[in-house]
Amino acid sequence: MKTNVSASRCFRKTVLFTLFALLVNSLSFAQLDKIYVNSQVNQISGICLLCSVQNPEKALDHYEGDYASLTIPIGVLANIEQTLIFPELASHFRKVTIGIGTANTPVKQLPLGKISIETFNGSASNNDARIVDTTILKADSDPKTGRIEFNPSKRFDRIKITLHSGLLHLGDELRIYYAQHSPIPFTTCGTPPLGPLLYYPFDGDLKDKIRGLDLISTIPASFSNSPTCGQNLTANHLDSLYIENNLPLAPERSLTISFLGRTDSLISIRSISEQGRSALFTPEEDSINSSQLNHYVIAYANGGHHHFSAEVYRNGKMINDGGLAMMLPPYSLLMTVAKGSVDELLVYDRILSAEERNQLTTSYNIPLDIPSFAIEAQKVRSDHEIFSISPNPTTGQITLDGNILLQDASITLRNTFGREVYQSKIRSKTFNLPATLSGGVYILTLQTKDKKVYTRKIILTR
């Protein structure tokens, strides 16, 4: 690793890409979990006798036990609307779940056309209004409660729920318990961890698919077919490609960058600030095969006072010794690659674990550059943890592993409020979580026959 290298030396290298400036002010690792609405507005229209919205605030925040009530005792072409507002603009790669219920009617027996939903970006409709039907409505074990689940096709920060009376209806009531969104897969290429800040697939453009923070180049960008994922960003000439974005990274955040790259020269990473100060290091001092596609992970761990320890991994193997980089606000991170290509650029506001890094590398069909004895050592360390769950995150099926005795053991699942939502004896190492559980974070507790207790966090993605 080199530090304090002059700018002139940096630009003596053949520069193909200068990739991108990073963010973000108000994000956290909690993005991987549920995000609930925190405000609302409501209104009543049409001929509606004694219609009301009762306890509208009870549809807000993370407690799912109380509810707001939209009631139409007598209505003629009447509508009651409640617009639920999230604390920030969300990516369209999120699954929305709305907990609903009725006083007497099973939710699956609600007349078609009774409830509709629509998403908005601020005051602008996303033009996706739809009637709630059996394709997006799921009943709970209690038939009078259920969930509306759907994936918005555009970015959104609010959802309008409308209860319609039709020509004439008597005694209608809709209960809204909560509304939240949680991450869903955002690409079919590889299996990257959920919840990134930014994602650039470079499939013929410089667009960010997560937050709309598209890159801007000072020269025309070139693309070519990728052997792994559609197209990639590439060039075979000496021109420099500068990509600019001037959004700040919140001071307390750590950062992980992941990308596929092919180059016949060094990859360098530079952090700069508007004051003109910079720190530069070049992690690749060894000779590499310019025709080989590699997977890189750059982890910036926040050490405070604008100092970040920087670790760079190539195909799972660390290729620098974790030196320091100075970044002063507003943060920009510039990455340069000489004569090659870059693809599948991902940015997270957290440090990926070793398991996540290795899984991501192999998911692109790139072999890990880790000796077999090191992999075995990792397995031994994992066994010393006694008890593990995979996959995690999971869509519903999990496998229990480790060196503990599972015979006659039992498991309990609790939500983030400590409420028990599932309990069962273990009959197999691999089993499915109940379909009635919505996506989110749960705490799994395993108790063995000899009363030893182990707990693990599970992220359920549905």
From TrEMBL:
Tagged with keyword Signal: yes
Question: Where does the signal peptide begin and end?
Answer: 1-30
Is Signal among the key words of this record? yes
Which Pfam families is this protein grouped with? Por_Secre_tail (PF18962)
Q: Which SUPFAM superfamilies match?
A: Concanavalin A-like lectins/glucanases
Keywords from the named record: Signal
Name the InterPro entries on file: ConA-like_dom_sf, Secre_tail
Q: Which residues form the Secretion system C-terminal sorting domain?
A: 389-459
Q: Output this protein's name.
A: Secretion system C-terminal sorting domain-containing protein
Q: Which organism is it from?
A: Chryseobacterium rhizosphaerae
The upper taxonomy is:
Bacteria, Pseudomonadati, Bacteroidota, Flavobacteriia, Flavobacteriales
